[in-house]
Structures are given as C-alpha cells and as structure tokens.
Amino acid sequence: MTRxxxxxxxxxxxxVALEARAITCAxxxxxxITIPPITVAAGQQVGQVIGSASGYRFDSPPGSAxxxxxxxxxxxxxxxxxxxxxxxxxxxxxxGLSMPVHATNVPGVGFAMMARDPNRPFMPIxxxxxxxxxxxxxxxxxxxxxxxxxxxxxxxxxxxxxxAARNLARYTITGTPISGAGYYAVNFSxxxxxxxxxxxxxxxTPSVAMPMPAVAARDFRGVGSFxxxxxxxxxxxxxxxTSGATRDVFITVTDQTTPANRSDVLSLTPxxxxxxxxxxxxxxxxxxxxxxxxxxxGNPNQWLxxxxxxxxxxxxxxxxxxxxxSSIRPGSANGLASFTMSYR
Length: 344
Hints:
By secondary structure, the chain is an all-beta fold.
C-alpha cells in the first residue's frame, strides 16, 4: 500500500476590504426660465414657433445642477422629466430633433424642450423622462450640468395671457438620494404672451374743404346732368400694429343738413341761394349714399374702405353738382356732410 504524506502548507494571502461608501447628491440653484413678453405674429399658424425661432436657452452654471459626494454609480442614470405639462399630441422639430409639444395654461400656446448634459448631444424631453447620461467606466461624474432649450409653439388660436410660474422639469439620478426637494428644478417664471396687435388708425384730416368751381346754368343739360367737380382726400394714419397685422377700415358719410337722408344726393344748406341743383359725392365711380352718424359696423350705407396694416390711408372723394329741377336759379350752392370712421 502506498502512503502519501501531506505536508501542511500555509497559503498566505491578502484580505481585501471593500469599503462601501454611500453616494448622495445635492441640487444647485434651480434654472428659472425668465423671458421678456412675447408678442405673437399676425397670422400665426398651428405648429409654428412663437417668439424666438432659435428658442430660449437656459443653462445651469457649470457643474452646478447636481453635485455628488463621489462619482455616480455604474449604471446610474441622470434623467430629466417634464412635470405639470400635459402633452398635446403635436410635435415640433428643431436642430434635427422632433420634440413632443406640451400645453401651457395659455390657450393656443404650447412648448417643446430639448436638454443635454454639457458633454452630450441634445435630447427631446417628455413627461416619461429621458436619460441624459449613464454612469459607466468612461464617465462617473461627481458634478453634473444641464443645458436646456425651450421653444414656444402655436397649438391653436391665441388670445394672449400669462404662462404661470411653476416647476417645469426635474433632474434626478436613479438609485441616488438627492437632498432638498429630491431633484434639480427647471422652472417657468411668469411669461407674458401678447396676442397680435392690430394697427390703430387716426384721422389726420378731420375737416376737408371741397371748394367747388363756379359753373353756369347753361353748363347743365337737363335734370340728372352734372357740372363742375373737385376731388379731395380724407387721410388716415394707421400705426402700432404687429408686423403683418391688419385692420378693416369702414366709413359712413352723413348729410348734416338732412340727417335722415339715405339717398345719393347731398342736400343744399339753408343758406344756399341756388335752386334746381344739388351736390353729389363719389368714391371712384360709385355714388356715395348717406347714412346715420354711427360707428356701428354694418351701419346703413357704410362702406369698406379696405384692409390696412401700418400705413397712411387715402380716401379720395369727388364732389359734383347735379341738376335736380327743370329750371335753375343761380346763386350759392353749398353742402355740409360729416364722415364717421369705423374699424374692425
């Protein structure tokens, strides 16, 4: 029988102690999105950007979004998620990214957000949350920054209002305690959205004299014939409108001698001496019919001058004599009319 002898062998080795150190992080001062009042462009279409076409960029100071006691754990994800922001189902594209559009409290105004770690590309942000960086062998940062860009987007008709200040997005790290509120905050400050401004028009010729030339009775050829004429302009100055915004301009002319007159013949004033004649006003080749002194849109015999933006508007009117009787008595023949402007 063969016997084997086992010599006692002492295997010496190092005992390695792994010290588990808990990682905690603290948020820096929040990003507060403060933007000067935005005036919506005239004719704004759904899906178009409101305000700056390049968006509004708001970044945390370098390395101040989250600061941790040590590098974030392997596999830990730094994630940004929108809050208090219902999705509209619409999307908006910029810089090669398609971003979901979320609603604000102002009807017709939504927003889209992209964000990134300063060393990573931008990502579209949503309410589910998007990973901006993952702790791995290449990167286990102790401090994290955050770059954000906001685009405001038309989602429907806009009448204006104020986007209320609120928490908009939260930046967290999975599996990692964060002191304070438990996240790094991106917030809206109050943001004023102004609806498109139509121009305001004022009359720069409040009184228009139309001196008629002297005519002889023989210049007429019977009832309904005309003689003598003069043309003058009513002038408006329309200013202060948003680029592309327009306003409809209406006018009513009233016979001041006979306010109830709704015909196309202007009465002679009581001091006139002539008879058998009257006056007519024309706008181009169309006779002016007289209406009540009222600014109401749709006033009888009111007419649309046109639609204008920021501009000077000229309204040419021509006065002429018309024979109204079989015989004409010479003398002065004066008329007095007023004009009333209406705007829409």
